[in-house]
Amino acid sequence: MKSQRLARIDHEIQRILGTLIAQELQDPRLAFVTVTRVEVSDDLKRAKVFVSVIGDRHQARQSLDTLTHASRFLRGELGHRIDLRYTPELSFIEDRSAERAIALAKTLREAQGSAAAPEEASE
């Protein structure tokens, strides 16, 4: 279990990066990107930034490449806005949990629909 301090740092980095990506990066290759969570290592030297990209696989790959290319800029801006001894190195990872949740909900709706159909047929 993460300490409360690390959890606060995770949340603060997530908030700042979300703002930076939305307002400061003006790259046309960047699709609609949302920072879903951040996991900072225990020594605060590395941070995994999980991002959700709205679009197809090509747009997601292009957006991740763009974020990786801009990681030095984002790290510098993060260092100016957060007071830590070390500004963590950023690595961007695609978070596909929203897609999985939508697919699961669709499967559940289909299962409920097929379960209701035999009951209606027997009546």
Quick structural overview:
By secondary structure, this protein is α+β, with helices and mostly antiparallel strands.
Description:
It is a single chain. The chain is α+β, with helices and mostly antiparallel strands and 123 residues long. The chain has one domain (4-96): K homology (KH) domain (GMP Synthetase, Chain A, domain 3). 57% of the residues lie in helices and 20% in strands. It has a three-stranded mixed sheet with strand order 1-2-3. Strand 1 and strand 2 (46-54) form a beta hairpin. Helix 1 (4-23) crosses helix 3 (71-81).
Task: Annotate the secondary structure layout.
Layout: H1 4-23, E1 32-40, E2 46-54, H2 57-69, H3 71-81, E3 89-94, H4 97-122
Parallel strand pairs: 2-3
Antiparallel strand pairs: 1-2
Helix pairs in contact: 1-3
* Global Rg: 19 Å
What number of domains?
Answer: 1
The CATH homologous superfamily is called K homology (KH) domain
Mean pLDDT: 87
Name the CATH architecture: 2-Layer Sandwich
Order of helices and strands: HEEHHEH
Q: How many strands, which pairing sense, and closed or not: the largest β-sheet? A: 3 strands, mixed
Structural class: alpha+beta
Q: Got a strand count?
A: 3
Number of DSSP helical runs: 4
Helix content: 55-70%
Shape: globular
Q: CATH first level: which class?
A: Alpha Beta
Q: Which percent band covers the strand fraction?
A: 15-25%
